[in-house]
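Quick start: what a row looks like.
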Amino acid sequence: MNKILFLFACLTFPGISFSQDSLNMSVLYNWQDPSLSKSSLYSNAYNEVWGYAKDGREYAIIGTTRGTHFFDVTNPSSVVLVDFIQGRDTGRNIVHRDYHDYQGYLYMVSDEGNASLQIADLSFLPDSVSLVYDQDTAIKLSHNIFIDSAAGKLYNCGGGNSKKFGVFSLANPLSPQLLFQCENDISWWGATVGTGGYVHDAFARNDTVFCNAGDGLYVVNFSGTPTLLASLTSYPDIGYNHSGWLSEDGSIYAMGDETHGKKMKMLDVSNLSSIQFLDTVGVSGDNNAILHNQIIRGNYVYVAYYYNGVFVYDISNPSSPVLVGFYDTSTEFNYRSFKGAWGVYPFLPSGNLLVSDMQKGLFVMDVSQAVVGVQELKQERFKVYPNPIVSELNVVGIQDFGGEYTVSITDVNGKLVVKEIIQNSFMRVNNIKIPSEIPSGVYVVSIFNSTFAESIKIIKN
């Protein structure tokens, strides 16, 4: 893709429209902080991105050379910086940070300097977050982490030290307990997995762990005595096996080789005794293109492709993926280094996509033109009246949601004004009382449960 050089003159760019290459994707918000140090290795001020949803609101989390930044992105035209947690180590030596959430906590690691495992309590959102754990005894340096929520285990991958792959119990989320330091505690690990047992990144579900170990893919079961279920060290277009993601039904694995000119691999893993290669997919006509991270949601895989930006592929037929959207976040020229789009997070209830770019910061992106089903998420499913309001609000459901859900009213800064739990399945809620003391202005009405969230703006006279 052509790179168009331009100046970013401001700190934040809500609602910006870039003139870069794109297909069916647009930028709703971009955040950059020019005061941040850039790493001495890749000149990146930014690294991994993560997302979180709570009480009808959506949050973007991005790592920088300084630490971890938390944004309320529920309304991309009015994004709020909620809080910031400084890393144990900061500055130009910091290249990598990584994140995963579990039971209302965010786990934060870094792979450089005098780092540590940090844990933030997210229960105080939307007002703030709280650092509740900062120790280097369990984990000091880490390249990537992945949490198996179903099994309550954290997997620690690589790092700039001698620890190559660790497994921790999160039975107590604030006190990770080491179960296996695999290269030391499993007799066959060092001679079987990767180079001396090193794992670069992993995906885990129900104690089955897909280990991306540089020289190939290794699938290990950790439900009891660790058992090697499968390995794949020879496949078409092979490079350095960096990362991967498992489809929701457990049948397809999207695997990325972090090697210039190599493409993403689609694998059928429904039978681990016989993993089948299906297809390669990636940037066409660019021998310098290089993949970094990918995530599957539904029938789509979202890919951060460094210099080329972010790509979305329809994998409903995994043997023949189809490009449905892309956006070139980067203005860097590809000199076969590592710059540009770092990570993606596609799991927000709104369907908006979070993207981090190593030089250009945090992006909130609209992918509704690319992804079938995202637009449906944004269709109106309930009505509120009157608007403007004075002392009470009526809420009428348009669809049968079933089960329990919540109605909340917050101000534009996310401060909760009213919250009610609703039990009936087809909703008609009348006479939600609005406290007389709250000032006139714009407020947000949200309805949500574990699978759905929608927000509507209202005005109080």
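That is the whole record. The longest strand covers residues 46-54. The radius of gyration is 22 Å.
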